[in-house]
Amino acid sequence: MRRTWWIYLIGVLGLIAVAAPFLWMVLGSFKTQGELLRVPPTWWPERPTSQNYEELFSKANFPRYFLNSTLVALAVTAGNLIFCSMIGYALAKLRFKGRNALFVVVMATLMIPGMVTFVPLFVLVTNAGLANSYPGLILPFLVSPFGVFLMRQFFLGLPDDLIDAGRVDGTGELGIFARIMLPLTRPALATLGILTFLGSWNNFLWPLVIAQTEDKYTLPVALALYSTGQNAQNYGLLMAGAVVVVVPVLVMFLAFQRHVTKGIAITGLK
Amino acid sequence: MLLFLAFTAGPVLGSLGMSFTDIRQRDLRTPFSVNGVGVDNYVKALQDETFRKAAFNTAYFVVIGVPLTLVLALGAAVLLDRGVKRFQALFKVGYYLPVVTSIVAIAVIWRFVLSPDNGLLNTVLGWVGIDGPNWLASKTWAMPSLIAMAAWRNFGSAMIIFLAGLQGIPDSVEEAGQIDGAGAWQRFRYLILPLLRPTILFTSVTTGIGYLQFFEEPFVMTKGGPLDSTLSVSMYTYNQFGFGNYGLATSMAYILFVVIAVITFIQFRLLREK
């Protein structure tokens, strides 16, 4: 019993180390530029100001980026829920020629880094006339090998008897999938949905190359370009920008965290 | 499935083909003017001083970063599994928070944490009398700074996997050790750690694959500098792409891929031997 208090102390110190940069970011976003430059730095803002946020949302056009990020993330999430569950179901429960070969292809692409595919993908999307467009931002991510893998693993765990029962009752194959099997995968769908949304929201490299004009920027792209461009010294603006990028996913993660950690424990992948 | 083939499997083959050509940005409109150049791109990449520097930096990032991340992750997992029975969920979620946030945003925040005079880190160091350097502008300290940030951000991910691994070890194992008179450290070292071997192998490979591709950190924090000291292979590939050298960029990406594939292959061999 005497030992436990210092174990908790270590745990709490760890939490502080994790949380401190976030807290500092939030507090910093309410400081004036003058206060942010002061040595030594202040912890609490002396005269809290919402000026950074006002500037962010008027001059810097962050509502637009916010909308773009949300739109892309929602579309990508919807696509993944639909397509990954269908492919996962087919790979787990339907017998057809080349099924194992297809699964090997999925697993192989799971390991291929984004850098490898991104140049030809860029050429493909550009040639299709989709550069700097929403379809260009969304299409390449509508299906993910991770999602297929996750859904396949989940479908494998469901008994075949349910499918047979459906067939006996005269339900069509599509009906068996949509009305019997799919509702049973709700936990997996929740996991996939939240992970896909977070992944899309945080995605950087692809939107960076495909969004060429300001009106198609997603939040991370806008933030990165602001932080390396002429606004690099406007600390307040950057901190407020980071808050806008980070806080929505933090809130979302806290609301759905059980699904996130479960998905990682099941598949061992991010 | 078509979508998947078009946007994932297709480009993989496409990039393999492109890496053997002299394709450049201007060829986008006239695809038939591209010439095959054999392995020239690969030769050029491997002879490029800057590419070698980037490869060295990437190796540095992985070799120091992966163990650091895993030690933090394992420490946190043991702490959660054995130590903090109450509030365990709170700690778990807390430690995991940085993993779900945008690397770009994290990198922006850390630029301020690491800034020389009014940064959070140097202020804290100042309390104990240490005069911290200008982390990101120093050739010596820029890379360690990025590594520390990456470990801080990512350890929660491996921690979850370690937790699952630890919870899979039956209590009887530790009880047996206790009866034999083994201390806490000995039980951990000789009983728990060997049983966790497959988990450690798995997390080290997945973390390693992620770190081999590090890109956002130098992109936002250092632009690869100072003097290319934080330039990664991914970032150099991206730069070559930006210059319009598509063929060269894909060959670099493929070199990275081959390294990753070899590591993955070794992992599967090691796991199978168990």
From TrEMBL, chain A:
Name the SUPFAM superfamilies for this protein: MetI-like
* Keyword vocabulary terms for this entry: Cell membrane, Membrane, Sugar transport, Transmembrane, Transmembrane helix, Transport
Q: Which GO terms describe its biological process?
A: transmembrane transport
The record's subcellular locations are: Cell membrane
Q: How does it sit in the membrane?
A: Multi-pass membrane protein
GO cellular component annotations, sorted alphabetically?
A: plasma membrane
* Family named by the database record: Belongs to the binding-protein-dependent transport system permease family.
Q: What is this protein called?
A: Multiple sugar transport system permease protein
Q: Which organism is it from?
A: Kribbella shirazensis
Automatic annotation (TrEMBL), chain B:
Keyword Transport included in the entry's annotation: yes
Alphabetic keyword roster: Cell membrane, Membrane, Sugar transport, Transmembrane, Transmembrane helix, Transport
List membrane-spanning regions.
59-81, 93-113, 146-169, 190-212, 252-271
Query: How does the entry describe its membrane topology?
Result: Multi-pass membrane protein
Coiled-coil ranges (or none): none
Give GO cellular component annotations, separated by semicolons: plasma membrane
**SUPFAM superfamilies hit by this protein:** MetI-like
Origin, by domain of life? Bacteria
The main place the protein resides is: membrane
Q: Its family?
A: Belongs to the binding-protein-dependent transport system permease family.
Q: Output this protein's name.
A: Multiple sugar transport system permease protein
Which source organism does the UniProt entry give? Kribbella shirazensis
Organism ancestry: Bacteria, Bacillati, Actinomycetota, Actinomycetes, Propionibacteriales
